[in-house]
Design a protein that fits this description.
This protein is an all-beta fold and about 325 residues long. About 0% of the residues lie in helices and about 35% in strands. It has no helices and 18 strands. The strands form four sheets. Strands 2, 4, 5, 6, 8, 10 and 11 form a seven-stranded antiparallel sheet that branches. The chain has a four-stranded mixed sheet with strand order 1-18-12-15, with no helix packed on it. It has a four-stranded antiparallel sheet with strand order 14-13-16-17, with no helix packed on it. The chain starts with about 60 loop residues before the first strand and ends with a strand.
Length: about 325
Amino acid sequence: MAFIITACTPTPTPQPPTSIPATPTASQTPLPPTATQTLTPIPTATATITPSPTPIPCYLTESVCLEDGHFLLARPISEGYVNTVHPGYRYGSTIDDTREPHHGVEFVNASGTPVLAAADGRVIFAAEDKVGTYSFWEGFYGNLVIIEHDVPELAEPLYTLYAHLSVIGVSEGELVEAGQQIGEVGWTGRAIGSHLHFEVRLGGLGYSDTRNPELWLMPLDDESGAIAVQLLNESGEVRRVAVNVDAVGDEQSALTWVASLQAYAPETEPVGVDDAWQESHAIGDLPAGSYRLSFTYAGGYWEQYVDVYPQKVTVVNFVIQE
Protein backbone atom coordinates (compact mmCIF):
# COMPACT_ATOMS: atom_id res chain seq x y z
CA MET A 1 0.00 0.00 0.00
CA ALA A 2 1.31 3.47 -0.84
CA PHE A 3 0.49 6.58 1.21
CA ILE A 4 -0.58 9.92 -0.29
CA ILE A 5 -2.97 12.72 0.65
CA THR A 6 -5.11 15.51 -0.76
CA ALA A 7 -8.19 17.44 0.34
CA CYS A 8 -11.69 15.98 0.11
CA THR A 9 -14.45 17.00 -2.32
CA PRO A 10 -17.90 17.88 -0.88
CA THR A 11 -21.20 16.97 -2.54
CA PRO A 12 -24.68 16.57 -0.93
CA THR A 13 -27.23 19.19 0.13
CA PRO A 14 -27.32 19.42 3.95
CA GLN A 15 -30.24 18.59 6.26
CA PRO A 16 -30.15 20.30 9.66
CA PRO A 17 -29.21 18.18 12.68
CA THR A 18 -32.01 17.78 15.21
CA SER A 19 -30.87 15.55 18.03
CA ILE A 20 -28.15 14.14 20.22
CA PRO A 21 -27.40 10.56 19.12
CA ALA A 22 -26.97 7.56 21.30
CA THR A 23 -23.60 6.16 22.30
CA PRO A 24 -21.94 4.11 19.50
CA THR A 25 -23.73 0.82 18.90
CA ALA A 26 -22.67 -2.77 18.58
CA SER A 27 -22.20 -2.22 14.84
CA GLN A 28 -19.02 -0.41 15.76
CA THR A 29 -17.45 -3.50 17.34
CA PRO A 30 -13.73 -3.64 16.52
CA LEU A 31 -12.75 -5.56 13.43
CA PRO A 32 -11.17 -8.98 14.10
CA PRO A 33 -7.75 -9.70 12.65
CA THR A 34 -7.98 -11.62 9.40
CA ALA A 35 -5.72 -13.16 6.83
CA THR A 36 -6.59 -10.50 4.25
CA GLN A 37 -4.51 -7.53 3.16
CA THR A 38 -2.56 -6.00 6.05
CA LEU A 39 -0.33 -2.98 6.23
CA THR A 40 3.02 -3.69 7.84
CA PRO A 41 2.93 -1.81 11.17
CA ILE A 42 5.17 1.26 11.19
CA PRO A 43 6.56 2.07 14.64
CA THR A 44 5.84 5.69 15.45
CA ALA A 45 8.32 5.99 18.27
CA THR A 46 10.90 6.94 15.67
CA ALA A 47 8.58 9.09 13.53
CA THR A 48 10.04 12.58 13.33
CA ILE A 49 9.92 15.58 11.06
CA THR A 50 13.23 16.89 9.75
CA PRO A 51 13.54 20.59 10.55
CA SER A 52 13.39 22.77 7.46
CA PRO A 53 13.33 26.53 6.79
CA THR A 54 10.11 25.84 4.85
CA PRO A 55 8.41 22.92 6.64
CA ILE A 56 6.82 20.34 4.38
CA PRO A 57 3.50 18.92 5.66
CA CYS A 58 4.18 15.49 7.09
CA TYR A 59 1.46 13.85 5.02
CA LEU A 60 3.54 14.54 1.91
CA THR A 61 6.60 12.75 3.25
CA GLU A 62 5.58 10.21 5.89
CA SER A 63 2.94 7.53 6.41
CA VAL A 64 3.00 8.15 10.17
CA CYS A 65 4.41 11.23 11.81
CA LEU A 66 4.30 13.07 15.11
CA GLU A 67 3.16 16.71 15.23
CA ASP A 68 2.73 19.44 17.80
CA GLY A 69 -0.97 19.96 18.42
CA HIS A 70 -3.02 23.17 18.41
CA PHE A 71 -4.09 22.55 21.99
CA LEU A 72 -4.82 26.22 22.72
CA LEU A 73 -8.37 26.08 24.09
CA ALA A 74 -9.63 25.27 27.56
CA ARG A 75 -12.77 23.20 28.05
CA PRO A 76 -16.01 25.19 27.73
CA ILE A 77 -17.48 23.01 30.48
CA SER A 78 -15.68 22.73 33.83
CA GLU A 79 -14.80 19.70 35.94
CA GLY A 80 -17.74 18.44 37.93
CA TYR A 81 -19.88 18.39 34.79
CA VAL A 82 -19.58 16.43 31.53
CA ASN A 83 -16.58 18.05 29.86
CA THR A 84 -15.83 15.26 27.39
CA VAL A 85 -16.90 15.33 23.74
CA HIS A 86 -20.01 13.24 23.09
CA PRO A 87 -18.86 10.23 20.99
CA GLY A 88 -22.11 9.69 19.12
CA TYR A 89 -21.98 12.79 16.89
CA ARG A 90 -18.36 13.76 16.36
CA TYR A 91 -17.12 16.50 14.08
CA GLY A 92 -17.95 15.81 10.42
CA SER A 93 -20.29 12.91 11.27
CA THR A 94 -23.71 12.43 9.65
CA ILE A 95 -24.78 9.52 11.89
CA ASP A 96 -25.03 7.17 8.89
CA ASP A 97 -26.35 9.92 6.58
CA THR A 98 -29.28 10.80 8.84
CA ARG A 99 -28.00 14.28 9.77
CA GLU A 100 -26.19 17.20 8.18
CA PRO A 101 -22.41 16.91 8.64
CA HIS A 102 -21.62 18.13 12.12
CA HIS A 103 -19.58 21.34 12.24
CA GLY A 104 -18.83 21.14 15.95
CA VAL A 105 -18.92 18.84 18.95
CA GLU A 106 -21.41 18.33 21.77
CA PHE A 107 -21.06 18.52 25.54
CA VAL A 108 -24.20 16.90 26.92
CA ASN A 109 -25.22 18.53 30.21
CA ALA A 110 -28.37 19.65 31.97
CA SER A 111 -29.83 23.07 31.27
CA GLY A 112 -28.25 25.65 33.55
CA THR A 113 -24.78 24.11 33.49
CA PRO A 114 -22.22 26.96 33.32
CA VAL A 115 -20.60 27.55 29.91
CA LEU A 116 -17.07 28.98 30.01
CA ALA A 117 -14.94 30.95 27.55
CA ALA A 118 -12.34 28.66 26.01
CA ALA A 119 -9.71 31.42 25.78
CA ASP A 120 -9.26 35.15 26.30
CA GLY A 121 -11.06 37.20 23.68
CA ARG A 122 -13.75 39.66 22.67
CA VAL A 123 -17.44 38.81 22.30
CA ILE A 124 -18.55 39.63 18.74
CA PHE A 125 -22.05 38.07 18.87
CA ALA A 126 -24.34 37.44 21.84
CA ALA A 127 -27.98 37.02 20.85
CA GLU A 128 -30.53 34.63 19.43
CA ASP A 129 -29.46 33.36 16.00
CA LYS A 130 -32.69 34.36 14.25
CA VAL A 131 -31.30 35.22 10.82
CA GLY A 132 -29.00 32.23 10.41
CA THR A 133 -25.92 34.30 9.56
CA TYR A 134 -23.50 31.61 10.71
CA SER A 135 -25.22 28.58 9.14
CA PHE A 136 -27.71 27.72 6.41
CA TRP A 137 -30.81 27.91 8.63
CA GLU A 138 -32.68 30.57 10.56
CA GLY A 139 -32.73 29.93 14.29
CA PHE A 140 -30.29 27.06 13.88
CA TYR A 141 -28.07 27.80 16.89
CA GLY A 142 -30.69 29.36 19.17
CA ASN A 143 -29.04 31.57 21.76
CA LEU A 144 -25.48 31.96 20.52
CA VAL A 145 -22.24 33.49 21.76
CA ILE A 146 -19.22 33.96 19.47
CA ILE A 147 -15.80 34.99 20.80
CA GLU A 148 -12.91 36.22 18.67
CA HIS A 149 -9.47 35.25 20.00
CA ASP A 150 -6.21 36.97 19.13
CA VAL A 151 -3.70 34.13 19.52
CA PRO A 152 -0.05 35.14 18.98
CA GLU A 153 0.83 31.67 17.63
CA LEU A 154 -1.70 32.01 14.80
CA ALA A 155 -1.51 34.15 11.69
CA GLU A 156 -5.32 34.13 11.38
CA PRO A 157 -8.09 35.02 13.83
CA LEU A 158 -9.59 32.19 15.83
CA TYR A 159 -13.27 32.06 16.81
CA THR A 160 -15.22 29.86 19.22
CA LEU A 161 -19.01 29.42 19.07
CA TYR A 162 -21.28 28.39 21.96
CA ALA A 163 -24.79 27.42 20.85
CA HIS A 164 -28.24 26.37 22.18
CA LEU A 165 -27.71 28.39 25.37
CA SER A 166 -30.56 28.84 27.84
CA VAL A 167 -28.94 32.03 29.19
CA ILE A 168 -26.51 34.45 27.54
CA GLY A 169 -24.30 36.02 30.18
CA VAL A 170 -22.17 38.44 28.14
CA SER A 171 -22.67 41.32 25.72
CA GLU A 172 -21.22 42.12 22.31
CA GLY A 173 -17.93 43.99 22.61
CA GLU A 174 -17.22 42.63 26.08
CA LEU A 175 -13.70 41.35 26.82
CA VAL A 176 -13.65 37.93 28.48
CA GLU A 177 -10.99 35.72 30.01
CA ALA A 178 -10.46 31.99 29.65
CA GLY A 179 -12.65 30.17 32.16
CA GLN A 180 -15.06 33.07 32.62
CA GLN A 181 -18.74 32.08 32.58
CA ILE A 182 -20.44 33.40 29.45
CA GLY A 183 -23.78 31.61 29.62
CA GLU A 184 -25.62 28.44 30.54
CA VAL A 185 -26.29 25.18 28.71
CA GLY A 186 -29.73 25.03 27.15
CA TRP A 187 -32.04 23.61 24.52
CA THR A 188 -32.67 26.53 22.16
CA GLY A 189 -32.58 26.56 18.38
CA ARG A 190 -32.73 23.32 16.42
CA ALA A 191 -31.69 21.06 19.28
CA ILE A 192 -33.37 18.08 20.90
CA GLY A 193 -31.96 17.53 24.33
CA SER A 194 -30.01 19.87 26.55
CA HIS A 195 -26.37 20.30 25.49
CA LEU A 196 -23.68 22.76 24.50
CA HIS A 197 -22.84 22.80 20.79
CA PHE A 198 -19.23 24.04 20.54
CA GLU A 199 -17.39 25.07 17.38
CA VAL A 200 -13.95 26.32 16.39
CA ARG A 201 -13.55 28.48 13.27
CA LEU A 202 -10.25 29.68 11.87
CA GLY A 203 -9.59 32.64 9.57
CA GLY A 204 -13.25 33.55 9.06
CA LEU A 205 -16.79 32.99 10.26
CA GLY A 206 -18.09 31.09 7.23
CA TYR A 207 -19.79 27.74 7.70
CA SER A 208 -16.79 26.03 6.07
CA ASP A 209 -14.21 27.78 8.27
CA THR A 210 -14.76 25.26 11.07
CA ARG A 211 -12.01 23.03 12.46
CA ASN A 212 -12.30 19.89 14.53
CA PRO A 213 -12.44 21.03 18.18
CA GLU A 214 -10.92 17.72 19.29
CA LEU A 215 -7.65 18.90 17.71
CA TRP A 216 -7.83 22.32 19.44
CA LEU A 217 -9.08 21.61 22.96
CA MET A 218 -6.43 20.93 25.59
CA PRO A 219 -6.39 17.23 26.51
CA LEU A 220 -8.07 16.46 29.81
CA ASP A 221 -4.70 15.53 31.32
CA ASP A 222 -1.02 16.03 30.57
CA GLU A 223 -0.58 12.41 29.49
CA SER A 224 -3.05 12.43 26.60
CA GLY A 225 -2.79 13.23 22.90
CA ALA A 226 -4.72 12.84 19.65
CA ILE A 227 -4.81 10.98 16.34
CA ALA A 228 -5.58 12.52 12.94
CA VAL A 229 -6.14 10.19 9.96
CA GLN A 230 -6.13 10.89 6.23
CA LEU A 231 -7.68 8.07 4.21
CA LEU A 232 -7.77 8.47 0.43
CA ASN A 233 -7.80 6.49 -2.77
CA GLU A 234 -5.05 6.88 -5.36
CA SER A 235 -6.97 9.72 -7.02
CA GLY A 236 -6.89 11.72 -3.79
CA GLU A 237 -10.57 11.22 -2.98
CA VAL A 238 -11.62 10.65 0.62
CA ARG A 239 -13.14 7.23 1.15
CA ARG A 240 -15.95 7.33 3.67
CA VAL A 241 -14.76 4.34 5.65
CA ALA A 242 -15.20 3.92 9.39
CA VAL A 243 -11.82 3.57 11.10
CA ASN A 244 -11.81 1.52 14.28
CA VAL A 245 -9.50 2.61 17.09
CA ASP A 246 -8.36 0.00 19.63
CA ALA A 247 -6.00 0.49 22.55
CA VAL A 248 -3.19 -2.08 22.58
CA GLY A 249 -2.35 -3.85 25.83
CA ASP A 250 0.89 -5.56 26.81
CA GLU A 251 0.62 -7.62 23.63
CA GLN A 252 -0.75 -6.62 20.22
CA SER A 253 -3.45 -9.27 20.61
CA ALA A 254 -4.71 -7.58 23.79
CA LEU A 255 -7.03 -4.94 22.33
CA THR A 256 -9.65 -2.70 23.92
CA TRP A 257 -12.13 -0.95 21.64
CA VAL A 258 -11.99 2.86 21.92
CA ALA A 259 -14.00 4.33 19.03
CA SER A 260 -15.28 3.91 15.50
CA LEU A 261 -14.46 7.12 13.62
CA GLN A 262 -16.65 8.15 10.70
CA ALA A 263 -14.98 10.04 7.86
CA TYR A 264 -15.83 13.71 7.58
CA ALA A 265 -18.77 13.76 5.21
CA PRO A 266 -18.78 15.82 1.99
CA GLU A 267 -21.42 18.50 1.41
CA THR A 268 -21.99 21.71 -0.55
CA GLU A 269 -19.91 23.60 2.02
CA PRO A 270 -17.75 20.98 3.73
CA VAL A 271 -16.47 20.99 7.28
CA GLY A 272 -13.00 22.49 7.44
CA VAL A 273 -9.85 20.43 7.93
CA ASP A 274 -6.47 21.25 9.40
CA ASP A 275 -4.28 23.16 6.96
CA ALA A 276 -1.25 20.98 7.72
CA TRP A 277 -2.83 17.55 8.16
CA GLN A 278 -5.86 17.57 5.83
CA GLU A 279 -7.42 14.89 8.01
CA SER A 280 -10.54 12.89 7.18
CA HIS A 281 -10.95 11.41 10.70
CA ALA A 282 -9.72 12.54 14.14
CA ILE A 283 -10.05 11.82 17.84
CA GLY A 284 -8.66 13.57 20.91
CA ASP A 285 -8.26 12.79 24.62
CA LEU A 286 -6.41 9.53 23.98
CA PRO A 287 -4.16 8.39 26.85
CA ALA A 288 -0.55 8.03 25.74
CA GLY A 289 0.15 4.50 24.54
CA SER A 290 -0.15 2.17 21.56
CA TYR A 291 -3.23 1.90 19.34
CA ARG A 292 -4.39 -0.12 16.36
CA LEU A 293 -6.25 1.61 13.52
CA SER A 294 -8.15 -0.78 11.26
CA PHE A 295 -10.82 -0.78 8.56
CA THR A 296 -12.25 -2.84 5.73
CA TYR A 297 -12.96 -1.61 2.22
CA ALA A 298 -13.91 -3.39 -1.02
CA GLY A 299 -13.12 -6.79 0.44
CA GLY A 300 -9.73 -5.77 1.82
CA TYR A 301 -8.57 -5.28 5.40
CA TRP A 302 -6.04 -2.67 6.56
CA GLU A 303 -4.50 -2.04 9.93
CA GLN A 304 -1.77 0.19 11.34
CA TYR A 305 -0.23 0.24 14.81
CA VAL A 306 0.74 3.69 16.09
CA ASP A 307 1.78 5.38 19.32
CA VAL A 308 0.13 8.37 20.94
CA TYR A 309 2.30 10.76 22.94
CA PRO A 310 1.38 13.36 25.58
CA GLN A 311 0.26 16.69 24.10
CA LYS A 312 1.05 15.53 20.54
CA VAL A 313 -0.95 14.58 17.43
CA THR A 314 -0.09 11.32 15.67
CA VAL A 315 -0.89 11.83 11.98
CA VAL A 316 -1.58 8.63 10.02
CA ASN A 317 -1.89 8.64 6.24
CA PHE A 318 -3.53 5.80 4.29
CA VAL A 319 -4.11 5.37 0.57
CA ILE A 320 -6.40 2.68 -0.80
CA GLN A 321 -5.43 1.11 -4.11
CA GLU A 322 -8.69 0.50 -5.96
